[in-house]
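Review box. Two proteins, two foldings.
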Amino acid sequence: MDTDNRSVSPSTLAAEKARLHEQGILLERWLADNENNLYPTREMKDRIALDLKTTYMHVNRWFANRRRKHSKRVKSTSQKQQADQAADAQNTGSPTDPEAAKALTTTRIVEEILHSFAKGW
C-alpha cells in the first residue's frame, strides 16, 4: 500500500480497511478454534498467512500484539481482584494475607485468655 495517503483514493483506503478488518476477524476465529493458543509455530503462522493472503510478518505481529493485549487484561484483572480483596478485608476486619490472619487470630485468642483471667481475679 502506498504510504502517501494523498495519492490513494478513499475507496482504496476503505477496501484496505475492510480487508484488514476481515483478516482480524479470521485471526480471532483461528485463535478461538485453537484453544486460545497465543504461540502458534512458525509453520502455523506461515499457513495462516497463506490462507489470509497476507505476509508472515503481519500474522506474527498480530499474535505479538494479541499476547501484549492479553497480558494487560490479566494484569488489570489481577489488580482489580487484589483491590476487591483489600476492600473486603477492610469491611470484614480480616486481612487477606494468611500470615496476618494467623497473627490476628492469635491476638484474639490471647485477648480472650487475658479477659478470662481478668474476670477470675
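Next protein.
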Amino acid sequence: ERRSTWCCLAWTLLVATMNLLVFLMNLLLMFVIFTIVLLPTIVVVYFGFQCHSQVLHSAAHYCKSFLDDNSSSALIILGFVIMSPLIVVAMAIYCSLARRLRLFLCFQPYSRAVYKGVKWCRYEEGGLCSCARGWNTQVKAWV
C-alpha cells in the first residue's frame, strides 16, 4: 500500500539520509585505504618537488647534502612510476574489504519510502546490512 504524500516525503528524506551516510562511510574507507597504500608515492614525490631548484628549492639540510636537481627529478619520476601499481593494489584492497563487509548491500532502495510494509534490513538476517537470506559467497561478479 502506498504511503501518504507527507509520510512518503519524510520516509524519502530518511532513506536518502541513510544512503548518504553509507556513501560517506564508503568514501571515508576508500580515502583511508588509498592514503595508507599511496603513502610511499606521496612521500617520494613530495621530497622530489621540495628539493628541486626549479620548483620549491628548500633550504633544508637533506636538500643541500643529499639531493641535487638530478636526484630530485629521479625521485619525482620514481614516485609517478610506482603510483600506478599502488593504485591497483589500493583498489583491490578496498573492493575486497567492501565485498567482505557487504558495504554495498547497506544502500536502501527508495521503494521503502513509497510503500508501507516493505521489510527493512536487519543484522540478524546475515551480515552487516544484508537483506538476503542465505547469500551465496561463491557468486562471482563476472559470471
